[in-house]
Amino acid sequence: MAEDAKSRQQHLMRQRRVAKLKKMIIATIIAGLVLPIVLCIVLFVRVASMQSEITQLKQSLQELKEQISQFQQSDETPDESADTGWENAEIPQDAVMSDAAQVLDVTGKKQVYLTFDDGPSVYTDQILDICKQYQVKATFFVVGKTGETNETILRRIVDEGHSLGMHSYSHKYNEIYASQEAFRADFLALQAYLEEVTGVKPMIARFPGGSSNSVSKIPMEQFIACYNEEQIKYFDWNVSCGDATGQPISAQEVASNVLMHIDEHNTSVVLMHDGADKRATVEALPVIIEALQARDDVVILPITEDTIPIQHIKAESVTGEN
Ligand code: ZN
Q1: CA 158–ligand 1 middle distance (angstroms)
Q2: Taking the complete model, does pTM exceed 0.90, yes or no?
Protein backbone atom coordinates (compact mmCIF):
# COMPACT_ATOMS: atom_id res chain seq x y z
CA MET A 1 0.00 0.00 0.00
CA ALA A 2 2.83 2.29 0.89
CA GLU A 3 4.32 1.64 -2.55
CA ASP A 4 1.02 2.60 -4.13
CA ALA A 5 0.77 5.82 -2.15
CA LYS A 6 4.30 6.76 -3.04
CA SER A 7 3.77 6.10 -6.74
CA ARG A 8 0.51 8.13 -6.70
CA GLN A 9 2.31 10.99 -5.02
CA GLN A 10 5.08 10.87 -7.62
CA HIS A 11 2.47 10.76 -10.38
CA LEU A 12 0.73 13.77 -8.85
CA MET A 13 3.98 15.67 -8.63
CA ARG A 14 4.77 14.88 -12.25
CA GLN A 15 1.35 16.05 -13.27
CA ARG A 16 1.92 19.31 -11.39
CA ARG A 17 5.30 19.77 -13.04
CA VAL A 18 3.80 19.12 -16.44
CA ALA A 19 1.00 21.56 -15.70
CA LYS A 20 3.54 24.14 -14.53
CA LEU A 21 5.58 23.55 -17.66
CA LYS A 22 2.47 23.92 -19.81
CA LYS A 23 1.67 27.20 -18.10
CA MET A 24 5.19 28.44 -18.69
CA ILE A 25 5.05 27.44 -22.36
CA ILE A 26 1.70 29.17 -22.80
CA ALA A 27 2.96 32.23 -20.96
CA THR A 28 6.05 32.28 -23.19
CA ILE A 29 3.93 31.94 -26.32
CA ILE A 30 1.55 34.69 -25.16
CA ALA A 31 4.48 36.93 -24.24
CA GLY A 32 6.04 36.20 -27.65
CA LEU A 33 2.83 37.22 -29.38
CA VAL A 34 1.61 40.04 -27.21
CA LEU A 35 4.91 41.84 -26.86
CA PRO A 36 5.45 42.34 -30.62
CA ILE A 37 1.80 43.41 -30.98
CA VAL A 38 2.20 45.97 -28.20
CA LEU A 39 5.46 47.15 -29.74
CA CYS A 40 3.77 47.41 -33.13
CA ILE A 41 0.96 49.49 -31.66
CA VAL A 42 3.45 51.80 -29.91
CA LEU A 43 5.45 52.18 -33.12
CA PHE A 44 2.30 52.78 -35.14
CA VAL A 45 1.22 55.54 -32.76
CA ARG A 46 4.68 57.15 -32.92
CA VAL A 47 4.76 57.01 -36.72
CA ALA A 48 1.26 58.48 -36.93
CA SER A 49 2.19 61.36 -34.64
CA MET A 50 5.41 61.95 -36.58
CA GLN A 51 3.44 61.99 -39.81
CA SER A 52 1.11 64.64 -38.46
CA GLU A 53 4.14 66.64 -37.32
CA ILE A 54 5.61 66.37 -40.82
CA THR A 55 2.31 67.54 -42.33
CA GLN A 56 2.29 70.53 -39.98
CA LEU A 57 5.90 71.33 -40.85
CA LYS A 58 5.11 71.07 -44.54
CA GLN A 59 2.22 73.49 -44.09
CA SER A 60 4.40 75.94 -42.19
CA LEU A 61 7.07 75.67 -44.87
CA GLN A 62 4.48 76.32 -47.59
CA GLU A 63 3.15 79.36 -45.69
CA LEU A 64 6.69 80.62 -45.26
CA LYS A 65 7.39 80.15 -48.96
CA GLU A 66 4.20 82.04 -49.85
CA GLN A 67 5.13 84.86 -47.47
CA ILE A 68 8.60 85.09 -49.01
CA SER A 69 7.23 85.08 -52.55
CA GLN A 70 4.59 87.69 -51.67
CA PHE A 71 7.31 89.82 -50.11
CA GLN A 72 9.47 89.48 -53.21
CA GLN A 73 6.56 90.27 -55.50
CA SER A 74 5.31 93.26 -53.60
CA ASP A 75 8.73 94.75 -53.13
CA GLU A 76 11.89 95.36 -55.03
CA THR A 77 14.27 92.46 -54.90
CA PRO A 78 17.69 93.35 -53.46
CA ASP A 79 19.11 92.71 -56.91
CA GLU A 80 16.67 95.20 -58.40
CA SER A 81 17.45 98.02 -55.99
CA ALA A 82 21.14 97.42 -56.53
CA ASP A 83 20.57 97.73 -60.25
CA THR A 84 18.45 100.82 -60.53
CA GLY A 85 21.30 103.29 -60.74
CA TRP A 86 22.40 101.95 -64.09
CA GLU A 87 19.27 103.07 -65.89
CA ASN A 88 20.16 106.59 -64.95
CA ALA A 89 23.41 106.44 -66.85
CA GLU A 90 24.30 109.56 -68.73
CA ILE A 91 22.30 109.88 -71.90
CA PRO A 92 24.55 109.74 -74.97
CA GLN A 93 24.55 113.01 -76.84
CA ASP A 94 23.65 111.41 -80.19
CA ALA A 95 20.44 110.09 -78.65
CA VAL A 96 19.55 113.55 -77.41
CA MET A 97 20.22 114.98 -80.85
CA SER A 98 18.72 112.07 -82.79
CA ASP A 99 16.19 112.63 -85.54
CA ALA A 100 13.52 110.86 -83.54
CA ALA A 101 13.76 113.52 -80.86
CA GLN A 102 13.02 116.21 -83.48
CA VAL A 103 9.71 114.69 -84.55
CA LEU A 104 6.57 116.64 -83.69
CA ASP A 105 3.20 114.97 -83.52
CA VAL A 106 0.78 115.18 -86.46
CA THR A 107 -0.77 118.36 -85.09
CA GLY A 108 2.65 119.99 -84.69
CA LYS A 109 2.84 119.56 -80.94
CA LYS A 110 5.70 118.35 -78.80
CA GLN A 111 5.25 114.72 -77.84
CA VAL A 112 5.93 113.53 -74.31
CA TYR A 113 6.00 109.84 -73.46
CA LEU A 114 5.87 109.08 -69.74
CA THR A 115 7.47 105.69 -69.13
CA PHE A 116 7.75 103.67 -65.93
CA ASP A 117 10.30 100.87 -65.44
CA ASP A 118 10.62 98.03 -62.94
CA GLY A 119 6.96 97.60 -61.93
CA PRO A 120 4.50 96.37 -61.00
CA SER A 121 4.86 97.49 -57.40
CA VAL A 122 2.80 98.92 -54.57
CA TYR A 123 2.90 102.28 -56.40
CA THR A 124 1.66 101.17 -59.82
CA ASP A 125 -2.01 101.36 -58.82
CA GLN A 126 -1.50 104.92 -57.55
CA ILE A 127 0.19 105.88 -60.82
CA LEU A 128 -2.72 104.34 -62.73
CA ASP A 129 -5.18 106.28 -60.54
CA ILE A 130 -3.36 109.54 -61.31
CA CYS A 131 -3.27 108.75 -65.04
CA LYS A 132 -7.00 108.04 -64.93
CA GLN A 133 -7.73 111.26 -63.07
CA TYR A 134 -5.85 113.34 -65.68
CA GLN A 135 -6.87 111.13 -68.63
CA VAL A 136 -3.28 110.40 -69.51
CA LYS A 137 -1.97 107.22 -71.12
CA ALA A 138 1.52 106.09 -70.12
CA THR A 139 3.92 103.24 -70.87
CA PHE A 140 4.93 100.58 -68.36
CA PHE A 141 8.08 98.54 -68.96
CA VAL A 142 7.47 95.74 -66.51
CA VAL A 143 9.52 92.89 -65.11
CA GLY A 144 8.39 89.32 -64.43
CA LYS A 145 6.55 89.69 -61.14
CA THR A 146 3.99 86.96 -60.63
CA GLY A 147 1.14 86.49 -58.16
CA GLU A 148 -2.47 87.64 -58.16
CA THR A 149 -1.79 91.21 -57.02
CA ASN A 150 0.72 91.82 -59.80
CA GLU A 151 -1.42 90.11 -62.41
CA THR A 152 -4.38 92.35 -61.50
CA ILE A 153 -2.12 95.39 -61.99
CA LEU A 154 -0.86 94.08 -65.35
CA ARG A 155 -4.42 93.58 -66.55
CA ARG A 156 -5.36 97.05 -65.31
CA ILE A 157 -2.49 98.61 -67.33
CA VAL A 158 -3.83 97.00 -70.50
CA ASP A 159 -7.54 97.48 -69.73
CA GLU A 160 -7.10 101.19 -69.08
CA GLY A 161 -5.41 101.76 -72.42
CA HIS A 162 -1.78 102.12 -71.37
CA SER A 163 1.09 100.50 -73.19
CA LEU A 164 2.65 97.39 -71.74
CA GLY A 165 6.31 96.89 -72.53
CA MET A 166 8.97 94.42 -71.46
CA HIS A 167 11.89 95.21 -69.18
CA SER A 168 13.24 91.63 -68.85
CA TYR A 169 11.80 88.86 -66.72
CA SER A 170 14.53 88.74 -64.09
CA HIS A 171 16.10 92.23 -64.34
CA LYS A 172 19.34 90.53 -63.32
CA TYR A 173 22.03 92.09 -65.47
CA ASN A 174 24.54 89.30 -64.91
CA GLU A 175 22.03 86.70 -66.07
CA ILE A 176 20.30 88.37 -69.02
CA TYR A 177 23.46 89.85 -70.51
CA ALA A 178 25.43 86.59 -70.08
CA SER A 179 24.67 85.39 -73.61
CA GLN A 180 22.25 85.84 -76.48
CA GLU A 181 20.58 82.57 -75.49
CA ALA A 182 20.05 83.73 -71.91
CA PHE A 183 18.77 87.10 -73.10
CA ARG A 184 16.34 85.53 -75.57
CA ALA A 185 15.07 82.96 -73.05
CA ASP A 186 14.46 85.72 -70.51
CA PHE A 187 12.42 88.06 -72.71
CA LEU A 188 10.50 85.25 -74.40
CA ALA A 189 9.48 84.00 -70.93
CA LEU A 190 8.29 87.50 -69.99
CA GLN A 191 6.48 87.96 -73.30
CA ALA A 192 4.65 84.64 -72.89
CA TYR A 193 3.79 85.42 -69.27
CA LEU A 194 2.41 88.88 -70.09
CA GLU A 195 0.39 87.53 -73.00
CA GLU A 196 -1.03 84.79 -70.81
CA VAL A 197 -2.02 87.26 -68.09
CA THR A 198 -3.29 90.17 -70.20
CA GLY A 199 -4.14 88.62 -73.56
CA VAL A 200 -1.79 91.11 -75.23
CA LYS A 201 1.60 90.10 -76.63
CA PRO A 202 3.96 93.00 -75.90
CA MET A 203 6.17 94.01 -78.84
CA ILE A 204 7.98 96.95 -77.22
CA ALA A 205 10.80 96.76 -74.70
CA ARG A 206 13.38 98.64 -72.72
CA PHE A 207 16.76 97.11 -71.89
CA PRO A 208 17.58 97.06 -68.17
CA GLY A 209 20.15 99.85 -67.99
CA GLY A 210 19.17 101.00 -71.48
CA SER A 211 20.84 100.02 -74.76
CA SER A 212 23.82 102.18 -73.74
CA ASN A 213 24.47 100.39 -70.43
CA SER A 214 28.09 99.77 -69.60
CA VAL A 215 27.35 96.66 -67.57
CA SER A 216 27.03 94.10 -70.34
CA LYS A 217 30.36 92.52 -71.25
CA ILE A 218 28.89 91.46 -74.60
CA PRO A 219 28.27 94.23 -77.15
CA MET A 220 24.64 95.35 -76.87
CA GLU A 221 24.27 95.05 -80.65
CA GLN A 222 24.04 91.28 -80.13
CA PHE A 223 21.02 91.67 -77.87
CA ILE A 224 19.48 94.26 -80.18
CA ALA A 225 19.74 91.59 -82.90
CA CYS A 226 17.73 89.21 -80.69
CA TYR A 227 14.96 91.80 -80.39
CA ASN A 228 15.11 92.47 -84.13
CA GLU A 229 14.66 88.76 -84.86
CA GLU A 230 11.45 88.79 -82.83
CA GLN A 231 10.25 92.13 -84.29
CA ILE A 232 10.48 93.73 -80.86
CA LYS A 233 11.14 97.45 -80.81
CA TYR A 234 13.26 98.84 -77.96
CA PHE A 235 12.97 102.30 -76.47
CA ASP A 236 15.54 104.23 -74.48
CA TRP A 237 14.92 107.73 -73.16
CA ASN A 238 16.15 111.28 -73.58
CA VAL A 239 14.74 112.78 -70.39
CA SER A 240 15.36 111.23 -66.98
CA CYS A 241 13.42 112.18 -63.88
CA GLY A 242 16.44 111.18 -61.78
CA ASP A 243 14.63 108.77 -59.48
CA ALA A 244 17.18 105.95 -59.87
CA THR A 245 20.42 107.46 -58.65
CA GLY A 246 20.23 105.63 -55.33
CA GLN A 247 20.20 109.01 -53.58
CA PRO A 248 17.10 110.37 -51.82
CA ILE A 249 15.18 112.71 -54.11
CA SER A 250 12.18 114.95 -53.46
CA ALA A 251 9.01 115.03 -55.55
CA GLN A 252 9.85 118.62 -56.46
CA GLU A 253 13.25 117.54 -57.81
CA VAL A 254 11.69 114.71 -59.80
CA ALA A 255 9.16 117.11 -61.33
CA SER A 256 11.71 119.78 -62.20
CA ASN A 257 14.12 117.18 -63.69
CA VAL A 258 11.38 116.37 -66.15
CA LEU A 259 9.89 119.80 -66.80
CA MET A 260 13.26 121.54 -67.21
CA HIS A 261 14.24 119.25 -70.10
CA ILE A 262 11.03 118.89 -72.07
CA ASP A 263 11.83 121.89 -74.26
CA GLU A 264 15.14 120.38 -75.37
CA HIS A 265 13.29 118.01 -77.70
CA ASN A 266 10.19 117.78 -79.82
CA THR A 267 9.82 114.16 -78.75
CA SER A 268 10.65 113.38 -75.14
CA VAL A 269 10.72 109.87 -73.76
CA VAL A 270 10.77 110.36 -70.01
CA LEU A 271 12.43 107.71 -67.85
CA MET A 272 10.71 107.14 -64.52
CA HIS A 273 10.42 104.14 -62.22
CA ASP A 274 7.47 102.60 -60.40
CA GLY A 275 9.54 100.43 -58.09
CA ALA A 276 8.47 99.99 -54.47
CA ASP A 277 10.81 102.76 -53.27
CA LYS A 278 9.67 105.45 -55.71
CA ARG A 279 7.22 107.45 -53.62
CA ALA A 280 8.73 110.76 -54.81
CA THR A 281 7.99 109.81 -58.42
CA VAL A 282 4.35 109.12 -57.58
CA GLU A 283 4.05 112.43 -55.74
CA ALA A 284 5.71 114.30 -58.62
CA LEU A 285 3.46 112.81 -61.28
CA PRO A 286 0.42 115.12 -60.83
CA VAL A 287 2.75 118.15 -60.83
CA ILE A 288 4.38 116.98 -64.08
CA ILE A 289 1.08 116.17 -65.79
CA GLU A 290 -0.59 119.44 -64.73
CA ALA A 291 2.36 121.48 -66.01
CA LEU A 292 2.36 119.63 -69.33
CA GLN A 293 -1.41 119.78 -69.75
CA ALA A 294 -1.34 123.51 -69.09
CA ARG A 295 0.63 123.92 -72.31
CA ASP A 296 -1.04 124.06 -75.72
CA ASP A 297 2.05 122.82 -77.52
CA VAL A 298 2.50 119.53 -75.67
CA VAL A 299 0.69 116.22 -75.98
CA ILE A 300 1.22 113.25 -73.64
CA LEU A 301 1.12 109.91 -75.45
CA PRO A 302 1.67 106.22 -74.78
CA ILE A 303 4.45 104.47 -76.73
CA THR A 304 3.15 102.11 -79.40
CA GLU A 305 4.78 99.83 -81.94
CA ASP A 306 4.48 102.72 -84.42
CA THR A 307 6.28 105.25 -82.23
CA ILE A 308 9.64 106.32 -83.68
CA PRO A 309 12.00 105.16 -80.96
CA ILE A 310 14.55 107.15 -79.02
CA GLN A 311 17.55 104.80 -78.92
CA HIS A 312 20.96 105.33 -77.36
CA ILE A 313 22.60 102.62 -79.45
CA LYS A 314 21.29 101.44 -82.76
CA ALA A 315 21.67 98.22 -84.64
CA GLU A 316 19.77 97.14 -87.72
CA SER A 317 16.25 98.24 -86.88
CA VAL A 318 13.13 96.15 -87.21
CA THR A 319 11.46 99.07 -88.93
CA GLY A 320 14.32 99.54 -91.38
CA GLU A 321 14.57 103.21 -90.49
CA ASN A 322 18.18 103.15 -89.46
ZN1 ZN B 1 15.09 98.64 -64.56
Answers
A1: 20
A2: no
